[in-house]
Design brief:
Distance between the termini: 46 Å
Shape: globular
Strand content: 35-45%
Number of helices: 4
Radius of gyration: 21 Å
Order of helices and strands: EEEEEEEHHHEEEEHEEE
């Protein structure tokens, strides 16, 4: 079963094909500051085979990281999602739990990567309660509930369910990158049909942005032929279940693909990631369904 087995990508090997390269140490200087803010723009879209937009949604939220405490190895922050960027009068938005404004308490390493969701049990209990209601409604069996309950009793799994983008946005912090080198890697990407992981092969490359002192790190992972066959079967099963429920005709499947791409803009002189873009695209019969999340560093308070 393709289930959650790792949280970060795996660097497999480096194949240099250049005469001379520079290395960049990706330290994250904002970790340790009293408060920093990222603006997050989220876009969802559907395009047809001619790349015409059939539907598009966009919204903006501000991520406020408030420092709570620190020690020699970690810095702990409270994360709040807000409609505005004013720290003195935040308009808090609901979290992923409907009607709730639960805050994430996150422990960062000194280098800037996310190491732990401190209040993970609060989210574990909320998820378990949701599954229990599904059992009562006949939407989930007791055996499925017990399996999910045992799975949720692990902090890394709950952290990924609750804060996957946050963890991934900061996961390069502390690494050293050779500009011009191509890193082969494997990244876990969830199936949109089953929620289980595909470990998609891909690469990561860093390059200096001409005319600036910034570095652009680009990464891409795409489903290959074997994964595409599995995805097609999952999609076929999903469409069959929907057709069986409402009598809708089944769509003839010609191809299913899944892509994940990321861009990280890093300023070595200031030691910070000032823009991060995460993009996931599902393709069914040349029709694309995209989910783009763009993080822009908005403000930093000493």
């Amino acid at each position: 079963m393709r289930f959650i087995a790792c949280l970060l990508f795996l660097l497999l090997s480096i194949f240099p094909s250049w005469a001379q390269t520079d290395s960049v140490q990706l330290q994250n200087s904002i970790v340790g500051k009293s408060h920093f803010v990222y603006r997050l723009i989220r876009q969802e879209y559907i395009t047809n085979e001619n790349d015409f937009f059939l539907d598009a949604k966009i919204d903006t939220v501000y991520l406020h990281f408030h420092k709570l405490n620190s020690n020699d190895t970690q810095v702990v922050y409270r994360l709040q999602y807000a409609q505005n960027d004013n720290p003195s009068s935040l308009k808090i938005v609901d979290s992923w739990i409907p009607g709730d404004t639960a805050e994430l308490i996150l422990a960062f390493s000194r280098a800037g990567s996310v190491e732990k969701l401190v209040n993970w049990k609060r989210f574990r209990d909320a998820l378990a309660s949701s599954f229990s209601r599904q059992v009562q409604a006949g939407l989930m069996s007791g055996e499925e509930f017990e399996e999910k309950r045992l799975t949720l009793n692990q902090e890394p799994i709950v952290r990924r369910l609750v804060a996957e983008d946050i963890q991934y946005a900061f996961h390069l912090s502390g690494d050293t990158l050779l500009l011009g080198a191509e890193y082969l890697r494997v990244k876990p990407v969830r199936s949109p049909f089953t929620g289980e992981d595909y470990y998609l092969r891909g690469n990561l490359v860093g390059e200096a942005i001409v005319g600036t002192r910034s570095v652009l790190i680009k990464a891409s992972n795409r489903a290959e032929s074997e994964e595409k066959q599995w995805l097609m079967q999952e999609c076929r099963d999903y469409l069959s279940s929907k057709g069986g429920q409402d009598g809708a005709p089944l769509t003839e499947l010609k191809g299913v693909g899944l892509n994940s791409e990321q861009e990280f803009y890093y300023a070595p002189s200031d030691s910070l990631f000032y823009r991060i873009q995460l993009s996931d695209v599902l393709v069914i019969n040349n029709q694309s369904r995209g989910n783009i999340r763009q993080w822009d560093l908005w403000d930093v308070y000493e």
